[in-house]
């Protein structure tokens, strides 16, 4: 689920300590279609999405800026 949310909001997600996690989770994304660029930006707003995830799942979510390592692969010349 975290991988899909990460792709949806276009923000990296790190998973912390999880206890008692269910083996299966079912979810769907709510967004408008068709949409304008402004509506798309509202629908994938990281703060709004994470607030809804917290409200719907009881998970604790914290948005913070962190440095992350990025691997870049280039074709040899």
Would you tell me the structural class of the helices and strands?
Answer: mainly alpha
Strand content: under 5%
| Number of beta-strand segments | 0
- Over the alpha carbons, how many angstroms does the gyration radius reach? 15 Å
For the biggest sheet, the summary is: none
Tell me, rounded to a whole number, the average pLDDT: 87
Helix content: 25-40%
The dominant shape is globular
Our count of helices gives: 3
Q: From N to C, what is the helix and strand string?
A: HHH
Weakly predicted, low-confidence segments: none
Describe this protein's structure.
The chain is mostly helical. The chain is 35% helix and 0% strand. The protein has three helices and no strands. The protein is globular and about 50 Å long. It starts with a helix and ends in a 20-residue tail after the last helix. The model has no long low-confidence stretch (mean pLDDT 87).
Please render the helix and strand layout as text.
Elements: H1 2-9, H2 37-43, H3 46-57
Distinctive features:
single chain; 77 residues; mainly alpha; 3 helices; globular
In short:
35% of the residues lie in helices and 0% in strands. The protein has 77 residues and is mostly helical.
């Amino acid at each position: 689920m975290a991988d899909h949310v990460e792709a949806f909001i276009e923000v990296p997600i790190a998973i912390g300590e999880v206890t008692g996690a269910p083996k299966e989770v079912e979810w769907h994304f709510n967004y408008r279609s068709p949409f304008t660029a402004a509506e798309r930006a509202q629908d994938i707003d990281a703060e709004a999405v994470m607030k809804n995830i917290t409200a719907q799942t009881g998970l604790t979510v914290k948005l913070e800026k962190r440095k992350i390592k990025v691997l870049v692969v280039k074709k040899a010349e």
